[in-house]
Amino acid sequence: MDCPKDGVEFETKEDEHVSLQRCADCAGIWLDIGDLSRILLRHNMPGLEKLGGTANLEELAGQCPTCHVDLMVVQGGPHKSLRYDTCESCGGIWLDQGLEGKKADTVDGLVEGIVEFYKRFGQHSQH
Ligand SMILES: [Zn+2]
Ligand SMILES: [Zn+2]
Asked: I need a labelling partner for 53 at 20 to 30 A (CA). Which of 2, 36, 74, 127 fits?
C-alpha cells in the first residue's frame, strides 16, 4: 500500500488492538474505519459520525491506496481549521495533521496523536 500523498510505501505499525499504516516520508497515517472506531471508543470518545465535520468537495485530496478512487476532504474543528480525508468506498481514513511531535515510532504515540486530533476536530466554533 502506498501513501496517497507522495506514493511512498507505507510501513505498518500495529499492536493487538489496531493496525496503522504510516508514511515515513510525510508522517501521514492511513487507518480503516473499524480501527478508528475502536480507538475513539477506547478513549471514551463519541463515534466519528458524532464528531461532525463538513465535506469539502472543492478541495483536492489524494487517492485511496486500496480502492484507487479520489478521497473526500472532511473539515471540522475550530473555524474548520482541521481536515482529514476519507474514502467513500471503503471508509478508510487519511490523517496528516496533529501527529507532529508525537512518538511516531510507537503505536501508542500515534494513537495519542489521533485521539488529540479528533478531540480538537469535535470542537465546533458555531453555537
Ligand atoms: Zn506520504
Ligand atoms: Zn477506499
From this structure: 2
Question: How much is the pTM?
Answer: 0.91
Q: Which ligand is nearest to the CA of 88?
A: 2
Ligand nearest to the CA of 85: 2
* DSSP helix/strand/coil, 122: coil
The per-residue pLDDT for range 17-54, each reduced to its tens digit, is: 899 999 988 989 999 999 999 999 999 999 998 999 99
Rounded Cα–Cα distance for residues 109 and 104 (Å): 6
Nearest ligand to residue 22 Cα: 1
Beta strand extents in 18-87 (DSSP E only):
19-22, 29-31, 54-56, 72-76, 82-86
Query: From the CA of 22, how far away is ligand 1's center (Å)?
Result: 8
Q: Cβ(10)–Cβ(30) under 8 Å?
A: yes
Q: Are 78 and 125 in contact (CB under 8 A)?
A: yes
Nearest ligand atom owner, CA of 86:
2
